[in-house]
Amino acid sequence: MKPDFKKGLLTTVVIDSKTRAVLMVAWMNEESYQLTLKSRQTWFWSRSRQKLWHKGEESGHTQQVNKMTLDCDQDTLLVEVTPNGPACHTGHMSCFFNQVDLDKGEEHAGLG
């Protein structure tokens, strides 16, 4: 099964194969998808920089791809990886570390 790029960029959820923790969410276009398949490392489309982005190209924190699964609509991709260091540019293992206080609806950095 192949992604449906006619809908635009693919939302890509990256998880740690071992811990199952969600590491990050990024976007793939057809070229980054093909580079990911070929290299077995994650490549994305940077919406802010408007260019291809090889995860770890600057930090060295690459992600070795172990498995990729498409959702039922073929427009969201789940990528299971073995991370070589933190996924987040802040140095956190996961980009998801800002807990929302459900009672107040406010963010609390670093909790969770």
From TrEMBL:
It catalyses: 1-(5-phospho-beta-D-ribosyl)-ATP + H2O = 1-(5-phospho-beta-D-ribosyl)-5'-AMP + diphosphate + H(+); 1-(5-phospho-beta-D-ribosyl)-5'-AMP + H2O = 1-(5-phospho-beta-D-ribosyl)-5-[(5-phospho-beta-D-ribosylamino)methylideneamino]imidazole-4-carboxamide. One of its GO terms (biological process) is L-histidine biosynthetic process. Keywords: Amino-acid biosynthesis, Cytoplasm, Histidine biosynthesis, Hydrolase. InterPro entries: PRib_AMP_CycHydrolase_dom, PRib_AMP_CycHydrolase_sf. It holds the Pfam family PRA-CH. Residues 24-97 form the Phosphoribosyl-AMP cyclohydrolase domain. Pathway: Amino-acid biosynthesis; L-histidine biosynthesis; L-histidine from 5-phospho-alpha-D-ribose 1-diphosphate: step 2/9; Amino-acid biosynthesis; L-histidine biosynthesis; L-histidine from 5-phospho-alpha-D-ribose 1-diphosphate: step 3/9. The keyword Amino-acid biosynthesis applies. One of its GO terms (molecular function) is phosphoribosyl-ATP diphosphatase activity. Its EC number is 3.5.4.19, 3.6.1.31. In the N-terminal section; belongs to the PRA-CH family. In the C-terminal section; belongs to the PRA-PH family. This is Histidine biosynthesis bifunctional protein HisIE. It comes from Oenococcus kitaharae DSM 17330.
